[in-house]
């Protein structure tokens, strides 16, 4: 530690039944950045909240947490911590004088003109900056940021990272809890790796990120997964021509042309609101386009889901962004996965169940897990179950909408590996809707960028 | 969507609703067997006399003509005349309205602050003894219908103890406000329970939300967090229930008016129905229908302000 120590944690242990955090120690100096990394459930947030003096209800706490000065907190989902019925400026002015609000808003680069808006009228990046401004109001010695880049597109994420860097430059210490390695690389001076509440590795960022000693740390640093060869790419499978789609009177997609070959993987990227999801929904028939066609193997598909035949429905499958919301909460996962085979392949109940079990085994979900209801499965398990459900239809085209959002690095890697393997095994055409460059880099043969409903550029991935 | 745009849309919808109410009231009266002429002609009607009355009242015109005529009268404030007494319908409304407005106004004035404060009070103590007592009491009281409560209160405070006048018979409520005490208590009882429970439930949700936890983290005082951050979110469901209650009160609560002998709009309606006085029934139905539309319009605008996000989905 170079200068004055701002945060000192010694032997922190938090237990609720079992230990959430066990024997964690670290220190952060003035103007330093500490990154606490680890998969979800590793105890990052518990440590972060401990710096604010907040612990889970009924937790047993031992060890020492010392902070010199005030702590500002930037929570994981800024949207959830903003009061939906209060104008954002009014809340800021409740906390401090107008002059202080002005300074904090300036420092967080939150546009002043937006102060009389409600939170839902702000974009994800603006909400993030607003929460940062709130944290800066009390002139904190240290800011704790919990997954500050989750769910942000690339451009916004870079901006958020830049803002954190400028705050650190002014002497505020920063503790980042993240599984986003790019953010950690960009900001951290020191890194602490947590697993199941224990520190398994820590040290200067430069050393730890380039030469990790522990295999778990290596797993966190995602390595590329791209299918080695493009041999499988052959005939044209999906052809989108002159596609225009509207939401009410808003034109969301304009004259989109996109050709995808059999076995090819195309990533569709672009900032939030650029029409990515609408494109995906047009392909599967969830959103009828106002003009243009989507053709599969040279044959145009009906515009709406209802008018598509069972074969066409099976041939184009969709994996939703929110896996949990795509399952019925009351029925076991296995029944819901098996339903695909019964509905789209006309199998009997018994046959569809055994087919479902085989498909679930392919994504490494056991029968015992699948017999449970969705609520008791983790996010990663549900993502894999959703994939199995889609694959059971034997699709020729699989459309995946942001399926890695909110997953930690380890789970994300396993989902991406699985997709790569499935693509190789089934000659599947993949359309990935994503704003995660890492995903596109690892899996896609080609990246198509949408901007305001237009194809801005289309580039071949470097294999 | 901004409040202004939402309001103009909602007002347009309100106008359509009022028109539908008018058509419905007209058709309902139209659908009744016999007409005013038959009613007026007495028990042993002479067909010639019925026809004469019809002609003099304009009932021989087509339904559309009469509807347009009636509508024109409504716009100019002429609701027709009573068949029984020959007085203008407006007089009946003017006679009952002040009393009903007074009762409804006093009840609402007491209801809103007391139910919100009580709801917040128990929500802040959720799960503790006081919360359980209040919850049990509100459920129990809500289960007692108005007429039963009214009779019990009259028997106890009006007759046995003699503290309060048992009826408002012949009294001027403004000169002698004590006659209002028992009726207001009866009117207050069930809405108070319903709204308290709604505020309590919504407030408990709001207090457990991320934005309230975050507001506490920012160092705001507890009462500030509870009243300025949590409460506005907890009011939306209560507002809709309050609209229903207001509508109920402005319609003249017949049971309460009957038990306490208060000559409000409810009594006017009962008398008109008993006397087959269709123009009066029609006039009151229009008034109640329009009140319902207006009260709900106000509640929707308030709810929009309390849940600005809901407007973006609509």
UniProtKB/TrEMBL annotation, chain A:
Keywords: ATP-binding, Nucleotide-binding, Transport. Residues 5-221, 238-463 form the ABC transporter domain. GO terms for molecular function: ATP binding; ATP hydrolysis activity. Pfam families: ABC_tran. The keyword Protein biosynthesis does not apply. SMART domains: AAA. GO terms for biological process: transmembrane transport. Belongs to the ABC transporter superfamily. PANTHER family: D,D-DIPEPTIDE TRANSPORT ATP-BINDING PROTEIN DDPF-RELATED, TRANSPORT ATP-BINDING PROTEIN. This is Peptide/nickel transport system ATP-binding protein. The lineage of its organism: Bacteria, Bacillati, Actinomycetota, Actinomycetes, Pseudonocardiales.
UniProtKB/TrEMBL annotation, chain B:
GO terms for cellular component: plasma membrane. Its main location: membrane. It is found in: Cell membrane. Signal peptide: none annotated. InterPro entries: BPD_transp_1_N (IPR045621), MetI-like (IPR000515), MetI-like_sf (IPR035906). The chain crosses the membrane at residues 101-122, 134-158, 178-199, 248-274, 280-299. GO terms for biological process: transmembrane transport. Keywords: Cell membrane, Membrane, Transmembrane, Transmembrane helix, Transport. Residues 97-303 form the ABC transmembrane type-1 domain. It holds the Pfam family BPD_transp_1_N. It is a multi-pass membrane protein. PROSITE patterns: ABC_TM1. SUPFAM superfamilies: MetI-like. Belongs to the binding-protein-dependent transport system permease family. This is Peptide/nickel transport system permease protein.
